[in-house]
Write a structure and sequence with these properties.
This protein has 185 residues and is α+β, with helices and mostly antiparallel strands. It is built from five helices and 15 strands. It has two domains: 95 residues, no CATH class; 72 residues, no CATH class. The strands form four sheets. Strands 14-13-10-2-15 form a five-stranded antiparallel sheet. Strands 7-6-3-9-8 form a five-stranded antiparallel sheet. It has a three-stranded mixed sheet with strand order 1-11-12.
């Protein structure tokens, strides 16, 4: 499994449009704070214990988004549309609560209710310009907080869990975002 470690100012990364977290935060942090909004995740998901070393590919309606390798204690979350991703135990607690009426299904999943929020912006033309992407380009890649490449297309959402500290920025494909998030005040 290839891990990626790009420097913020690495010009070859810029040419490939593979940006580091530091670069995204530097270029988009202020814009995100000014133009962003809070969104509440809705509905339920299925959750199971991950196997240490398990590779989970996150596949959205527009193809492969990213992948991650489970560490000891991690969980796999499956959204209603089938998209799966790995989540650490504390983030599971922060974002979901067990549906006490749920039972372990045949795949080893249990139902959890969504309680998490995200602060985000649409990856629009202005976002692309702030990243130095001009012309016909309609997507870029960046390094997710877990060290793997993640793809972002125009119209997708770029989100963070904490607008004050901006620990990381991640992408949620717009179709999945519209199916699972609502604007909050």
């Amino acid at each position: 499994m290839e891990r990626i470690d790009f420097e913020t100012k690495d010009k070859s990364s810029l040419e490939k449009k593979i940006f580091s977290q530091e670069f995204l935060i530097e270029k988009l942090g202020d814009y995100l704070k000014i133009e962003g909004s809070w969104y509440q995740k809705q509905g339920s998901v299925e959750v199971r214990k991950a196997q240490t070393g398990e590779v989970v590919e996150t596949i959205t309606s527009d193809g492969k988004e990213t992948q991650n390798i489970a560490k000891e204690g991690d969980f796999v979350v499956r959204n209603p549309g089938g998209e799966e991703y790995i989540i650490e135990p504390q983030r599971l607690i922060d974002r979901y609560e067990l549906d006490q009426e749920s039972h372990l299904n045949e795949d080893g999943y249990r139902t959890y209710k969504s309680i998490g929020k995200r602060f985000g912006i649409v990856a629009n033309e202005e976002v692309f310009t702030k990243l130095g992407i001009v012309g016909e380009e309609d997507e870029f890649e960046f390094v997710a907080s877990w060290g793997e490449k993640m793809r972002c297309r125009k119209g997708d959402m770029l989100v963070t869990r904490d607008i004050d500290t901006l620990p990381s920025i991640t992408r949620i494909a717009i179709h999945e975002f519209n199916d699972t998030y609502t604007l909050t005040t």
